[in-house]
Amino acid sequence: MCLHQNPSHFEENKEEITHSNLVWNDYRETIRGMVFFDPHVHMTSRTTDDYQAMADAGIVALIEPAFWLGQPRTGVATFKDYFASLVGWERFRSSQFGIKHYCTIGLNSREANNEALAEQVMEILPLYVYKEGVVGVGEIGFDDQTPAEEKYYRAQLELAKEAGLPVQVHTPHRDKKQGTERSMAIALEHGLDPGMVIIDHNNEETVHSVLDQGFWAAFTIYPFTKMGNERMVEVVREYGPERIMVNSAADWGISDPLAVPKTAALMKMKGISDEAIRLVTYQNALDAFAQSGQITESDFEAVKNIDQSLKFNGNTILRGGQQPRIDKDSIFIR
Ligand SMILES: [Zn+2]
């Protein structure tokens, strides 16, 4: 996307072409033994194969933010069931693959625009945000940057403050820079400590200001639309690893639940230090969301002692083993 033709950037492009057919399976060995925390992934939309592949790649914990399901919900009851599944069935399903599952709970920005429904959702949110394993209010923020989105963003910032929880902020695809600035300004206006706010879906245009103002900067490695992982390597090279975290935001769209380990492998190949990789693919997310008081690192080990014959309300999963279809052969995510 970048049109600057400075020599160093030009060389970087040449290097990308040389490496364009790197195969993930050939490079996964380079990160063997490393552990990863994906702080934004919508597992409800993913398969057991994905869980297995994530566990095999070293993902030990994840956060599933409440989000938009792809079509508008018609009543508050479906929000209740969805939130209940995030703290119930999905957590159980994850545990069956040895991955510790946490979630954030919130009214997503798109559905904030249905005000009649949004009011009802706001009423039930306090029933879920205090539950065990809920590590934040999220993902909330702006989509189209409408007055209704702002109203419910503000209301949920207050809820997060009251609950003492971190906030996971979704920034808009359109007018991203302005939307990101607005999200941060409103959070500060409500008296939130920027250290309790994770600004998500950053890019090269937003990262400087986010870090400069003391917020956490999350980056989504998502094919075709958000960030590619080669660009991510350059961001870490330029800004260092402090307060930066990488996630997949894998969901029902064309996305990659292995985005975090693949990016770690690419960073390793490109000479980023092991310590910097550990910070941006594990420790920073842990530190940010552990402020909820809901994350204990030793639980990551405990959940590994899985017994797949366990049941949740009488139901069991007993599947898995295959690799995901999308991008399974490439270390690159574009
Ligand atoms: Zn999301």
TrEMBL record:
Pfam families: TatD_DNase (PF01026)
Residue ranges that the Swiss-Prot or TrEMBL entry lists as coiled coil: none
Molecular function as annotated in GO: hydrolase activity, acting on ester bonds
Domain of life (superkingdom): Bacteria
Xref: InterPro entries: Metal_Hydrolase, TatD-like, UCP005295
Protein name: TatD DNase family protein
Species name: Siphonobacter aquaeclarae
Organism placement in taxonomy: Bacteria, Pseudomonadati, Bacteroidota, Cytophagia, Cytophagales
